[in-house]
Amino acid sequence: MTQAILTLNAGSSSLKFQAFAVDDLSVLLAGKVTGIGGDAKLALSVPEDAAPAQPMGGDHHAALAAVLDCIDRHDDDWQVTAIAHRIVHGGTSFAAPVAIDDDVMAALAELVPLAPLHQPHNLEAVEASRALLPDALDIACFDTGFHAGQDPLFTTMPLPQRLRDEGFRRYGFHGISYEWIARRLRADHPGIARGRVVAAHLGNGASMCAMVGGQSVDTSMGMTALDGLPMGTRCGAIDPGAVTMLMRRGMDAEAIDHVLYHESGLKGLSGLTNDVAALIQSNDRQAQFALDVFALRIAQFAGRMAVSMGGLDALVFTAGIGENAASVRDAVVARLSFLPAFQVLVIPTDEERMMAIHVKELMAGGGACAD
Ligand code: ADP
């Protein structure tokens, strides 16, 4: 029998999953359920000769049931003994990965207002997993965790004390990805790992992290996953006065969230799409303009982070855009060419493996990942 760790990353309409063998952390199975809540389909990316996407219906519970069915059908001897859940927000209470019980679930539910578009779906997947695999260990891995040690100088928002007492502060996200990058740097580029590094996680969600000696000191994302860089469809940092203006026009929080999370960013700027590969291919002037704004803002944040760190030794690009869009990387680096020499690296992210490593160490009783 092969013991397996299943990693889950649940979005509003998707559930990404990977199954790892506990022994050697080889990938047994990987894939994604898309279209949850509508025309849901499960597709495998590992093994590569996978069958076409299988249509299915239902919610996250049904999606996870389909994933488990897929695991069962593939090999009767795989036993999922632990599930790693990607949880977007750990607030101030959670940094290191933690086993999920009723108390932890209640605490995570209280954080929903800080990540209203992500946290509820993350927790739906946990509920589904606890119902469908009651004997397995559920572990929460937090996108905020890697940033938990930041100095208050960097995390404090200039707001009245009473709001700061309620948790109004900067948290930062994509921490599992940055932790993986820090780990890869330690293994492959130890000299750089000890220095001042800006990592740019550029996917549909996009953020940047300043790391000194592998520790997060500054991030572009703030209290919610809306701050910082313009993203695929999210606006990133804008004047908060623009939000109150929309409210005065009679828009409620949900309608404003929709504009800022789903209609803005590269999609809003280009008027076309959030897909950077398509924007690069396009001859449309607005497509190029959107990419120009994106690269400018990435470079501006890198400049800010050089200030936060007192210099810059390396800039690391990761995630779909960072790993694949050389023209975006080149445009960013060109804007930073006035700085003293720094290294530019591309390191593929692997948030699933990072979560599996954490779970394996917790299962071994080793606590949070020490490496
Ligand atoms: P998510 O945050 O959804 O995980 P990804 O990390 O997969 O996102 O990144 C998706 C983005 O990466 C999309 O904008 C996509 O166009 C872009 N991308 C992927 N491959 C390429 C490529 N070869 N060239 C340019 N952009 C790419």
From TrEMBL:
Substrate binds at R86. It is found in: Cytoplasm. It is an enzyme of class 2 (transferase). Coiled coil: none annotated. Its cofactor is Mg(2+); Mn(2+). GO terms for cellular component: cytosol. Mg(2+). Can also accept Mn(2+). Keywords: ATP-binding, Cytoplasm, Kinase, Magnesium, Metal-binding, Nucleotide-binding, Transferase. The keyword Kinase applies. HAMAP family: Acetate_kinase. PANTHER family: ACETATE KINASE (PTHR21060:SF21). This is Acetate kinase. It comes from Croceicoccus mobilis. The gene is ackA2.
